[in-house]
UniProtKB/TrEMBL annotation:
Annotated spans, Disordered: 1-21
Swiss-Prot/TrEMBL domain comment: Consists of two distinct domains, a catalytic core and a N-terminal extension that is involved in tRNA binding.
Residue ranges of coiled coil: 45-87
Domain Aminoacyl-transfer RNA synthetases class-II family profile as annotated: residue spans: 184-407
EC number, as in UniProt: 6.1.1.11
HAMAP family tied to this protein: Ser_tRNA_synth_type1
Binding-site residues for L-serine, renumbered to this chain: T230, S231, E232, E284, T382
Subunit structure comment from the entry: Homodimer. The tRNA molecule binds across the dimer.
Protein name stated in the entry: Serine--tRNA ligase
RNA sequence: GGAGGUGUCGCCUAGUGGCCUAUGGCGCCCGCCUGCUAAGCGGGUUGAGGGUUACCCCCUCUCGCGGGUUCAAAUCCCGCCACCUCCGCCA
C-alpha cells in the first residue's frame, strides 16, 4: 500500500509512477474520489455519534416527561448513527480496495518500460568458451542424468510436468548449497529461520501476491490457506501487527523454505529441465529497516548475492529491472543473472527487491522512533534458489568426460569432493 | 475432531449495563532531590482516523476479531480466531 498522504498531497507523482510501469492512472483518480467520499462520510458519522453520546449522558439524570422526550429523540438518532456507520464502513472499504490496487511507486533510478527495458549494471567474470576448449557442453538435463543427480522423468510420472527428483549427488548438492548459504548468512549477522510454507490470506495479501500475481499461487482446496511462492511471505508477515523498537533495526532473517508456483502463462517456456518448476527450495534473505536506510540495505543485499555467486565461480551480470517488470510491492529490483552455457545467455539466479514501506503498511509493521511511530521498510533477496543454481554449476563447471568440477568454496559442504563423477554412460 | 477455561495499554492486573474520559503496579521517559549509584518525590507513557494546523486544540474509534440486543456495551447474546487443560487421532 502506498502512503495515503502521498496520494492526497502529490497525486501527480503517483500518476507518473503508473505511467512508468505502463499502467493507467485511472485508479489514482478513482482512489482520490473515494478518499473524498470516505472523509465526508466519516465527518457525517462522527457528527451524529457525538450527538448521540451527548444525549446518552443526559438520560440517567433526566426524569419523567423530559426523560421520555430524550429517549424518543435518541431512538431515531440511534438509527441514523447505524446508517451513517454503515455508509462510512462502505466508503472506507471502497477506498482501501482502490488504494491497495496501486503498486509501489517505482524508484526514480529504475528504468522505465517493460521486461526488455532493463539496464545492465555490470558483468562479472567471463562466460566459459567451450569452443576454444574443443568440446560441446552438455545441458543440465543430460549432466543430471549422467551424474545420477536429477530425475525429471520420474518427477513427471509422480507429480507431473515441471517436477523433478534430486537424487544422489543432486540431493547432496542441495544440502551443500543450503548449508553454505546459511553459513554465509549467519556470518553476515542474519538470524536463520525455517518458516511455514502454508499461510493465511492475510500474509499473501500483505506481501502483494493476491493481486495480478494471484494466478501463480496455489490455494488449498477447502481451507483458506496458500502455499507460498517464496519465504518472503512468511518472513514479511512474521512481524505483522507489531511495533518494533527502532533501535533494534535492521532486523535480518535468512530462511530456508520450499517455494510453490503455478507458472501460469508460461506454457511452452523452459519446458526442458529444472529451470522453471512448480516447486523448489530456496534460501531467502529478508531485512526490516527504515525507509531512509532501505536503499543502502538494498545495496548490501545485492552485495551478499554477488559474494555468493562469486564463491560458486559463476559468470554473471547484474540488471536493474524496468519499472513495468517490478512486482506490485517493489520500488526497485536487481536481478543477478548467471551465464548458462547451453542456452548462450544469462538467466536469473537471484533477485533482490526494495519494497520500502509498501508491505509494511499492508501488514501493519511499524517501528518506534524518537520522532514517533512509522511504517518500516522491507527488503528481500535470494541467496540461493536451488534448481537454477544447480543448473548453472553443472553446466559451467562440466568437463569433457561429463564430470563436474566442484568450486573450492563448495567442497567442504560436499564431503570434500572436488569432482562429481558420472555414474552412468 | 469433542468438552471446559482464558483473552483489558510493552508486562501483570481492577473492572457484572450509564459516575469507564478504563483502575493499580512493574517497566520506560522527563523533571526534582542527591558525593556516585540506589531509594524517594512529581509528571508523562496504546494505537488509528477525521477536523484544524506554526505550535496548540477539538472530535470519533480502539478492552482478541466480527455481528446482535439496548437510548447507552469492556460488561449481556451469537459467530469466529488464538492460547491453556482434558479426551480422541496421529509423524
Amino acid at each position: 500500500m502506498i502512503d495515503p498522504r502521498l496520494l492526497r498531497d502529490d497525486p501527480d507523482r503517483v500518476r507518473a509512477g503508473q505511467a512508468k510501469r505502463g499502467l493507467s492512472a485511472d485508479v489514482v483518480d478513482h482512489a482520490l474520489a473515494a478518499d473524498e467520499q470516505r472523509r465526508s462520510s466519516i465527518a457525517e458519522y462522527e457528527r451524529l455519534r457525538a450527538e448521540q453520546k451527548q444525549l446518552g449522558k443526559q438520560i440517567p439524570q433526566a426524569q419523567g416527561e423530559e426523560k421520555q422526550a430524550l429517549l424518543e429523540r435518541t431512538k431515531t438518532l440511534s438509527a441514523d448513527v447505524k446508517k451513517a456507520e454503515a455508509a462510512q464502513g462502505e466508503a472506507e472499504q471502497t477506498y482501501r480496495e482502490l488504494l491497495m490496487a496501486i503498486p509501489n511507486v517505482a524508484a526514480d533510478e529504475a528504468p522505465a518500460g517493460g521486461e526488455d527495458d532493463y539496464a545492465v549494471l555490470e558483468e562479472v567474470g567471463t562466460p566459459r568458451d567451450f569452443a576454444a576448449e574443443g568440446f560441446e557442453p552438455k545441458d543440465h538435463v543430460e549432466l543430471g542424468r549422467i551424474l545420477g543427480a536429477i530425475d525429471v522423468e520420474r518427477g513427471a510420472k509422480v507429480s507431473g510436468a515441471r517436477f523433478y527428483y534430486l537424487t544422489g549427488v543432486g540431493a547432496d548438492l542441495e544440502l551443500a548449497l543450503v548449508n553454505m548459504a546459511m553459513d554465509q548468512a549467519r556470518g553476515a549477522g542474519f538470524t536463520t529461520m525455517i518458516p511455514p510454507a502454508l499461510v493465511k490470506p492475510r500474509a499473501m495479501e500483505g506481501t502483494g501476491f493476491l493481486g495480478q500475481a494471484a494466478d501463480d499461487v496455489y490455494r488449498i482446496e477447502g481451507d483458506e490457506m496458500y502455499l507460498v511462492g517464496t519465504s518472503e511471505v512468511p518472513l514479511a508477515a512474521y512481524h505483522s501487527d507489531e511495533i518494533l523498537d527502532g533501535r533494534s533495526l535492521p532486523l535480518r532473517y535468512a530462511a530456508f523454505s520450499p517455494c510453490f508456483r503455478k507458472e501460469a502463462g508460461s506454457y511452452g517456456k523452459d519446458t526442458r529441465g529444472i529451470i522453471r518448476v512448480h516447486w523448489f527450495d530456496k534460501v531467502e534473505m529478508f531485512s526490516y529497516t527504515t525507509v531512509e536506510e532501505s536503499e543502502a540495505e538494498h545495496q548490501r543485499l545485492l552485495g551478499w548475492e554477488k559474494e555468493w555467486l562469486e564463491k560458486l565461480e559463476l559468470a554473471y551480470r547484474v540488471i536493474d529491472t524496468a519499472a513495468g517488470d517490478l512486482g506490485l510491492s517493489a520500488q526497485r529490483k536487481f536481478d543477478c543473472e548467471a551465464w548458462i552455457p547451453t542456452q548462450g545467455r544469462y538467466r536469473e539466479l537471484t533477485s533482490t527487491s526494495n519494497c520500502t514501506d509498501f508491505q509494511a503498511r499492508r501488514l501493519d509493521i511499524r517501528g518506534r522512533f524518537e520522532d514517533g511511530v512509522k511504517p518500516l521498510a522491507t527488503l528481500n533477496g535470494t541467496l540461493v534458489a536451488i534448481p537454477r543454481t544447480i543448473v548453472a554449476i553443472l553446466e559451467t563447471h562440466q568437463q569433457a568426460d561429463g564430470s563436474v568440477r566442484v568450486p573450492a568454496a563448495l567442497q567442504p559442504y560436499l564431503q570434500g569432493r572436488k569432482i562429481l563423477e558420472p555414474v552412468v554412460g
